[in-house]
Amino acid sequence: MARIGDHLTRLATLSPADLRAEWQEVEGEAAPDLPPSLLRRALAYRLQEQSHGRLPAAVQRMLIQLSCDPSAKPVEPEIRLKPGTRLLREWNGKLHTVHVTEDGLWFEERRYRSMSHVAREITGAQWSGPRFFGLRKPVHPPLQGAARG
Question: pLDDT per residue over 28-69, tens digit each?
C-alpha cells in the first residue's frame, strides 16, 4: 500500500464511481449510499484506521457518550495501575493485598484479569473493582449532616 498521505491525497481526485470502487476494495462490500463528500471522508477514516490503528476504547466510549447527549459529563478515564502498585482493602475484618505486575493482578498466589474479578473473589458478589478498592468515588456520596449509625 502506498504511504497513507499519498493515498489520502489520491482520494480527493477520485470520481464518485471510483470512490465506490475504492470502498469495495477496502471494505470488501458495496459502498453505502452516501454523497461523494461523505464517502470520501469515511474512506479516509478507514484508511487511517488501518494504517495507524483504532482509537482507544476509552476515547470511543467518550465520543459515543458525547454524541448521544452533548450535555453529558465526560466518561471517567480508564484507571491504569503501574507495576509495583499494591492495592489494600479491608473486608470483613481481614486485610487483603493485591499486587500489580506486568502480567496482571496477583491475589493469594493467583493471577486475575481485572480488579472486579479480585473484588468478586474477596466478597463473593459482583463489584466494580475500582470502586471496591477506593479508586472511584461512590455513585451516591453520603449526605451532609446525615445521621451516622
Answer: 999 999 999 999 999 998 888 888 888 888 888 888 877 777
- Phi then psi for 10, rounded to 5 degrees? -65, -35
d(CA 50, CA 115): 32
C-alpha cell at 106: 496477583
The region of weakest confidence among 61-70, 100-109, 136-145 is 136-145
Q: What is the pLDDT of residue 94?
A: 95
Phi, psi dihedrals of residue 19, rounded to the nearest 5°: -60, -45
From residue 105, how far is each of 82, 86, 91, 99, 118 by CA, in Å? 11, 9, 18, 6, 8
Q: Which three cell numbers stand for residue 95?
A: 486485610
Pairwise CA distance, residues 99 & 144, whole Å? 35
Please state at what angle helix 16-27 crosses helix 36-52, rounded to 10 degrees: 30
pTM of the predicted protein model: 0.45
Closest CA to 39 of 60, 70, 17: 17
Supply the Cα-derived Rg of the chain in whole angstroms: 24
